[in-house]
């Protein structure tokens, strides 16, 4: 996990995406190999994709569900995100949002990921 950003529910996905990408770019040398970003349908649209390409020179690939399908469909690379959410839900404090500040929620997500990674290394 490179970065966590918790925003208010009233923030549109593309605006939140711009905030996340600005923070990722500020990481500097840690992300020199980043050039492709997978996103879900909330980030679809030529204006957002062009903004990312013009500002950061990264490519955004939106992973969409095929229109003609019904029921469950396995989407490319989506399972990585869903699996990570599943791991995080193993931490009781993250199951419900009790925090007043978004920074507190971000910190708890980092702590949970540290715990998960340490357990995997042990």
Task: Provide an overview of this structure.
- The chain is mostly helical.
- The protein has 2 domains: 59 residues, no CATH class; 46 residues, no CATH class.
- Helices cover 48% and strands 7% of the residues.
- It is built from 5 helices and 2 strands.
- Strands 1-2 form a two-stranded parallel ribbon.
- Strand 1, helix 2 and strand 2 form a beta-alpha-beta unit.
- The chain is globular, with a radius of gyration of 16 Å.
Topology:
Layout: H1 13-25, E1 36-39, H2 46-56, E2 59-62, H3 78-88, H4 92-95, H5 102-121
Parallel strand pairs: 1-2
Short structural summary:
It is built from five helices and two strands. It is mainly alpha-helical.
Element pattern in H and E: HEHEHHH
Silhouette: globular
Helical content band: 40-55%
Q: Based on DSSP secondary structure assignment, what is the total number of beta strands? A: 2
Strand content: 5-15%
Please summarize the sheet with the most strands: 2 strands, parallel
Structural class: mainly alpha
Any low-confidence stretches, pLDDT <50, length ≥5?
Answer: none
**What Rg do the Cα atoms give?**
16 Å
What's the number of domains? 2
The termini sit apart by 19 Å
Mean pLDDT: 90
Q: How would you write the strand order of the largest sheet?
A: 1-2
What multimeric state do the chains show? single chain
Count the DSSP helices.
Answer: 5
């Amino acid at each position: 996990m490179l970065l966590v950003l918790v925003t208010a529910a009233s923030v549109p996905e593309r605006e939140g995406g711009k905030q996340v990408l600005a923070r990722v770019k500020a990481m500097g040398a840690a992300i020199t190999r980043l050039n492709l970003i997978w996103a879900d349908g909330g980030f679809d649209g030529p204006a957002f994709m062009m903004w990312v390409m013009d500002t950061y020179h990264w490519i955004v690939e939106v992973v969409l569900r095929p229109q003609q399908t019904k029921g469950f469909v396995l989407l490319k690379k989506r399972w990585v995100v869903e699996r990570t959410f599943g791991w995080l839900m193993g931490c009781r404090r993250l199951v419900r949002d009790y925090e007043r500040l978004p920074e507190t929620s971000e910190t708890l997500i980092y702590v949970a990921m540290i715990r998960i990674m340490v357990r995997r290394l042990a």
